[in-house]
Amino acid sequence: MPGRIPAALRSRLDDDATFGLVELLDSERKDWSGEVLTIAADRFERRLAQELGLLRAEVSTALNDGLTAIRNESATARVETLKWSFVFWIGQVAAIAGLLTFIRH
User: Rounded distance, CA 3 to CA 71, Å?
Assistant: First the structure.
């Protein structure tokens, strides 16, 4: 303890007063450290909740955009498939009509 307390202060205080001062300073330091940790933890939790909320919103937006793009691609693919089916069917009807015309003559 003598290394922690300056010599000028030790010479002005007796041993009991020096020990009392050291105990008071240690007690105050512990209280202050606890308060600082509590405040820091509260700020961290609040900031973490804020960032998680933003992340959720971004993920939700990205997911919604992705699903919309998939729906649009699926609709386009269905239209293309239907269009080519009609082309095939028309070709088949024309081929059968041609065969029937050829067979009749």
Answer: 75
